[in-house]
Structures are given as structure tokens and as C-alpha cells.
Design goal:
Helix content of chain A: 25-40%
Distance between the termini of chain A: 17 Å
Number of helices of chain A: 3
Strand content of chain A: 25-35%
Largest sheet of chain A: 5 strands, antiparallel
Order of helices and strands of chain B: EEEHEEHEHEH
Radius of gyration of chain A: 15 Å
Largest sheet of chain B: 5 strands, mixed
Shape of chain B: globular
Strand order of the largest sheet of chain A: 1-2-3-5-4
Structural class of chain A: alpha+beta
Distance between the termini of chain B: 30 Å
Oligomer: heterodimer
Strand content of chain B: 25-35%
Structural class of chain B: alpha/beta
Shape of chain A: globular
Helix content of chain B: 25-40%
Radius of gyration of chain B: 13 Å
Number of helices of chain B: 4
Largest interface: A-B, 25 and 21 residues
Order of helices and strands of chain A: EHHEEHEE
Number of strands of chain B: 7
Chain lengths: 136, 113
Amino acid sequence: MQVEVIIPTQTKYLNLIGSIGEHIAKELEDYSGDREMLAYHLNLVLTEATANAIKHANCNDPKDSVRITIHIDDHELKIKVYDHGQGFDLEKVDIPDFDHPKEGGMGVYFIRTLMDSVTYNRMSDCNVLEIVKHLK
Amino acid sequence: MNASLEKINGYSIVNVLDERIDAHNSAGLKEMFLRLIEQGEAKIVVQLDKVRFIDSSGLGALLSGHKNLTSKKSGRFILAGCKQQVLSMFELTRLNRIFEIYADLTEALENEK
């Protein structure tokens, strides 16, 4: 199954994207893990990834959009978030300093910690954040 | 940000009415804390009993309020009524070691420091 959503680069749509993640977790067949926890984690990861794409998007273009695809099979869930912004270097995002917490920089940490793999690649006409979660 | 304000025993109570705190409304919450602190409020309790989802920007807004208030003399920034999902986010970021957290408003107000 694949779900595809295209939203304008506006934060008011984060609720919609997060809710889709929650819904998918609750409807997964044959998932033996903690469904409520997975629902929260997918809500969070989709919210963080989409907010990041909106933040890095080209603000000068009112027609700019973020495309999100969620592909689900028996073994894994693959999220792709496409943005048209300048992009960023995922490897340069540091782990937060928990002894001296700062206001920003926790979003990527959540995605890395709660999911199984994360990559960010620049394509010819867009950037793609790809997130994989193995399903037990 | 949908939130109501009340004053009880010298504490400013911020009742967050939204179920979600994310990048759409977290700036509003941060502004609300800043305004209260600018007005001279020294004790703020944030009631989070209706909040079932918080993201990194929401945690950032709470951290901003905490830092701005606790840097002042006798300033207290208290969180109350957190649902388990919200508490788990504090644990994941270890912010549970930073924030003053109580089960509910009554317990928060009883623990006068």
C-alpha cells in the first residue's frame, strides 16, 4: 500500500500529516509491537520531517509544496518527504547536548532515534528525506 | 495557540487547550510565556492535561519558558497534568531532569518552595 499527500508549505497541515501516520499505525495488519507507541512515533516523525521540509522550503514561491509518500509492506514502512528548498547536510546535525539543552535541533534526533534508518539526498529538482521503520 | 490564563495563590496558570503542540502553534506558546515573564510573573504553571502530542518545537517553547523564568530570582516554571505520551518525550530528551513536573495542578500548588 502507498499513501501520497501533497501539501502547501504551511504548518497548519502538520496535524493532517501526523494524523495519517497515527491512523496507519492503528490499521497495520499483523503488527505485534506496541501499536499506541508506534502511532505516536509515526505522528512525531512525520510532523518533524514535514516541518523541516517546510522550514527549508523556498519561501519566495507561494506555490511551493511538500510531497510525502508512505509505503507499507509486511516488513517495513518507508516514508519519503520531498522538498524544493536548499537542503541541508544530515550528517552535520549533531546529537543534542542533554546536559545543556537548546530549543532547536531535537527533530532530527527524534527521527534517528525512533526509526531504523534515515537518509537525505539531493536530487536534480528536489531533496528527499527517506525514513525506514522495520515492522516487527 | 489556544490557551486560557488564570491566577491562583500568586501562580499564573496557563491552561493549554490545544491537543497538539507543534511548529504551527509553539511560537504562540513561547510568546505567551515571554509576555507573562515581562509582566513580572515569577511563578508559572503550565497545565498540559489536554495535550496528547508535543513535538520538538513544543519542547523548545517549554524549555524557553523554563530558561527565561528560572534565570530570575525566585522564578518557578512548573508543568502539571502531563499525559504519558508527553512524559515519554521529556524522558527521551532527558528534559524530565530539567523541568519541575507534578501530576496535577493541586499537587503543583501544594509544593510551595
